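Possible race condition, two jobs.
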Amino acid sequence: QVHLVESGGGLVQAGGSLRLSCGASGRTFSSYGMGWFRQAPGKEREFVAAISWSAGSTYYADSVKDRFTISRDNAKSTVYLQMNSLKPEDTAVYYCNAVDANYDPFASWGQGTQVTVSS
């Protein structure tokens, strides 16, 4: 089992930046890919970004490409999401999860971290 704890959210003005962190415990962190997902009010949870177990590959949703960067530190069992040039439409609760080869999440969801971007 993988236990996930997200942090780093907050309120920021449009154009600003935030860095989210996700700590994982349980199963060996370096053995699986990690992803970030988000859920805006009244909408389905959606994929944001993913990174392979070795950090050799990354993948982004078109809506965040060139603005967000996912990274990981296997020694700290932590995955990060650097978010730049934030837009009001990025407002959502952000979640991390372990992902399989298709970037589908397979662990239980954590509590998430709220990101609010004001215009």
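Job #2 (started ~2 s after job #1):
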Amino acid sequence: QVQLVESGGGLVQAGGSLKLSCAASGSIFSRSAMGWYRQAPGKLRELVAVITTGGTTNYSDSVKGRFTISRDNAKNTVYLQMNTLKPEDTAVYYCNAQGRRGLTIWNYWGQGTQVTVSS
């Protein structure tokens, strides 16, 4: 069973920075595309950033240029560096692992970590 454990959330003033971490148990990390999603109250969960097994990254337009996703396969950890935070970045941030090997497909979620940006 794979577990994803997020950390690093908290309360920060607008313009500040936070770095989220997501540690994965199990042996699938290096074969997984890792993503960060977020869900604000009353809104749908949305993709923030994704990094493939090869290190290719993609970002939502709302965070491009401010957030950076990275991964450390040796530590089974994915990070999200968030700079120049805005009140609209306030949400619960979730880590996600997706991948496939042969006929086996997986899609795992973490429990989420709250990020609150005050104006």
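The CA atoms of residues 101 and 119 lie 45 Å apart.
Logs attached separately.
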